[in-house]
Amino acid sequence: YGICPLNNVESLKSSKMCVPKGLTKLYSYTCNLSDGRPITCMCWHKANDDILVVSYGSVDTNGSVAGEGGMVLFWSPRNLLYPEKIIRTKSIVTSMAFSNHRPACLAVGMHNGVICLFDTSLHGDDLGNPLLDSEMLPERHMSQVRDLKWVDKGDKGEQLISVALDGRILEWSTKKGFEANQLMKLRPVTEHNKCVLKQHLGGTCFEFGEDETSYLVGTDNGNIHRCSYSYGEQYIHTYSGHKRPVNSIKYSPFLPDIFLSCSIDWNMKLWKSDRSEPVLTFKALDLTDSVNDIAWSPHDSTVFASVCGDGRIELWDLSVSTLDPQFTLATSTTEGTKKASALTSVVYAKNAPIMVVGGESGNVDVYLTPHAFP
Questions:
Q1: Residue 8 CB contacts under 8 Å (≥ 6 apart), including other chains
Q2: Distance between CA atoms of 314 and 166, rounded to whole angstroms?
Q3: What is the pLDDT of residues 160-189, one digit of tens each?
């Protein structure tokens, strides 16, 4: 059981540089603006790799909105105590994505279903005024926008793709204002001789790989579906394994047919594109909480990180063990309680041995990962 049973496991191992054995905390980003506001997502600025962009909400543990408006902060190592820029939004920010063709253009998805585009090269009040938004559009999402991705569509140019809990996947064009085209309406898979009582299916996340004709969508019933850009009436493939909503899906940066998923059901699963069932399932024996986010190391082909609802960070290495994480770090408890603050987001830096973790406390913690660079 301790050996990774992938046909191309040697390809994974051959590109290894070293095995991370721990994390060294370097510093944290925190200020009175973010204190106590749960972090919903994080991403690196496309025009400046030093700038970390972090979105914040005010959602309590039951999922209800406990506050007004959302916030996006732009953090830089030059100032750990106050962000370089601030965007305030009418609703809680639940997803973000930078354009690849226009590095200063940031798409922001919100709890109320609205999507806004911001020009992050601006300053002050101008920065807070969106270039475009979907608030008054009849085709906009009617519930929380869970994920956003910019995709190059060739002659059609770069398109923004969104998925929301209303079960709709929309493609947005910005050539003539803000226009949406529905790619797919998610529906439960009807199994033979089984009655499907739930007719609504919410989208929770998605992922785009090297295949330009399809993409993966995670749902709130635990299934992952492969969908086609050109045909939205049925799924190309369904991956069944999770029992509760899927929180994140990530393709391996080294092997295009391998992807990882995590769920509220406490599990992470490794998949091969041509198999309907998971190749491997990962779960620490003492974990009894949701796995909220995952990230492949861009420096080491067999290593990935996960953050969990009980406040732990886990580092896994498939070349060492598939049963237990190689390293686990328990974060500090919330002030006045014995329970650790849940962690919600993890990202790696592409050009440095750095991993960043955020959670419900509002703190952004930056760690050194001991990778060796050639």
A1: 255
A2: 32
A3: 999 999 999 999 998 888 999 999 999 987
